[in-house]
Amino acid sequence: MAMTKKKWSVSALAVEFGMDRRTVAKRLEGVPPSGKERGSAVWNLSDAAAALTGTSGPAKPGNSAPPVPPGFERLTGLSALDQIATFAMMEMARRAPAQAAVLAVAAGADVQTAYALRKAMIVAIVGEVVNVSGLCLMQPLADNPGADLFDLDGFDQCDWQALAAGTGEVVDLDAWDRRATECFAG
């Protein structure tokens, strides 16, 4: 027996996903229907699910799709698995350097050292994302390790004033930049 994809109307999708019919129609704007049945547009479930939930899994009744996080638009055109895995790595990479700096100060490092650590971790963690992507054949970095995937200004910042206030240090970002460059330059 041959398996065929079932086509879903807006009403059927609303029932299945526990959503208002108008919400379903709004979220499907821009998703091309896979055909028409009885004069109405219908979609394959695999095409509609991503637009309705913002994830690859089923929606829970009453939940709305999360907003598209910054940077995710750079992954358009990739497979869903590559989008999710690459975005997860990008988000961890974006957050980790600032977290490491805060933890360094908590462990007793001076804030100037934590500042240099954050800057060095950005370089190191971007390199690791590229390496892991290559090992896992994840796109777009597997075929193009030089892809401009990260917005370097998009990495989490630290509240250097608050950290320095806790240690009694004076914040001098220019001097800290020079020291970080000296410490980690090639």
Structure description:
It is a single chain. With 186 residues, the chain is mainly alpha-helical. The chain is built from 7 helices and 3 strands; from the N terminus they run βααββααααα. The protein folds into 2 domains: 7-53; 72-184, no CATH class. The protein has helices spanning 10-17, 21-27, 45-53, 80-106, 111-136, 160-167, 173-184, and strands spanning 7-8, 35-37, 40-44. It has a 3-stranded antiparallel sheet with strand order 1-3-2. α1 crosses α2.
Structural descriptors:
186 residues, mainly alpha, 2 domains, 3-stranded antiparallel beta sheet, 7 helices, 52% helix, 5% strand
**Termini gap:** 64 Å
* Average pLDDT score: 78
The helix-strand sequence is EHHEEHHHHH
Query: Which strand order does the major sheet show?
Result: 1-3-2
User: Which class of secondary structure composition applies to the elements?
Assistant: mainly alpha
Give the radius of gyration: 23 Å
Q: pLDDT below 50 for ≥5 consecutive residues: which ranges?
A: 56-62
Percent helix among the residues? 40-55%
Number of helices: 7
Helices and strands in order:
Elements: E1 7-8, H1 10-17, H2 21-27, E2 35-37, E3 40-44, H3 45-53, H4 80-106, H5 111-136, H6 160-167, H7 173-184
Antiparallel strand pairs: 1-3, 2-3
Helix pairs in contact: 1-2, 4-5, 5-7
Short description:
Helices cover 52% and strands 5% of the residues.
